[in-house]
Design goal:
- This protein has 221 residues and is α/β, with parallel strands linked by helices.
- It folds into two domains: 149 residues, HAD superfamily/HAD-like (Rossmann fold, 3-Layer(aba) Sandwich); 62 residues, DNA polymerase, domain 1 (Orthogonal Bundle).
- It is built from eleven helices and six strands.
- α6 links the parallel β2 and β3.
- α1 packs across α2.
- The protein starts with a strand and ends with a helix.
- The mean pLDDT is 95.
């Protein structure tokens, strides 16, 4: 029976969370909303529609939702040619693949954005597939993206580990019954990640790679 390593992308493998914050901030500003960057940062990791609803509330003008998410996509696309992976991201994926793990990404990115992120990571040779929020009825923190990633990997929850950087990642993994590993590279505090269900916390992908043999990956499966 296979084992799986499931990964979020933004803030986990790629240094893109704060690009998303500034692009969302500008998208909200263009629509006439003043939303604090700290609030946007805490919402990064939700799918676009869920992020808008989370920040503007139920009483918002829902006709603006599509315009705001489209503006964010347009603004973020200007960065596609210079997106950056964290040092060690590709090395970590290859090390896990060499240990027999099937690598699956679980992200809300799709299309050109996903292609740009995968190019930045540079490990397509070991990535078995991608589970996007486009493929499920509900994005993180619902468990469906993680469950879909398990389906792609052909692996039960008991033989997988999920790695992410947001409280939404941790909650989705916990709800799917998958042990959750958190990275601090997305800018979320250790306390918040542990409260959301992280079983282990590392500084970034390089730190996890250096301690791989004592990590939940060595204990699962």
């Amino acid at each position: 029976m296979p084992q799986a390593a499931l990964f979020d992308v933004d803030g986990t493998l790629t240094d893109t969370n704060y690009l998303h914050v500034t692009c969302w901030w500008e998208a909200f500003r263009q629509a006439g909303h003043r939303v604090a960057m700290c609030d946007i940062h805490r919402a990064v990791g939700l799918s676009g529609g869920d992020l808008v609803a989370h920040l503007l509330g139920e009483e918002r003008d829902r006709e603006q939702d599509g315009l705001i998410t489209a503006a964010h996509k347009t603004l973020y696309a200007t960065h596609f040619d210079r997106l950056s992976a964290f040092d060690g991201a590709g090395d970590l994926l290859r090390a896990l693949a060499a240990r027999g793990r099937r690598i699956v990404l679980a992200t809300s990115a799709s299309g050109r954005e996903l292609a740009a992120l995968r190019a930045a990571v540079g490990a397509d040779d070991v990535i078995a597939g991608t589970a996007s929020s486009d493929d499920v009825s509900a994005g993180k923190p619902a468990p469906e993206p993680v469950e879909h990633a398990l389906e792609i990997a052909g692996c039960p929850a008991s033989r997988a580990v999920f790695v992410g950087d947001s409280v939404w990642d941790m909650r989705a993994a916990v709800r799917a019954g998958v042990p959750a590993v958190a990275l601090l590279s997305g800018g979320v505090s250790r306390g918040d990640l542990e409260e959301a269900g992280a079983t282990a916390v590392y500084r970034d992908v390089s730190d996890l790679l250096a301690r791989l043999d004592s990590s939940p990956f060595a204990r699962s499966g």
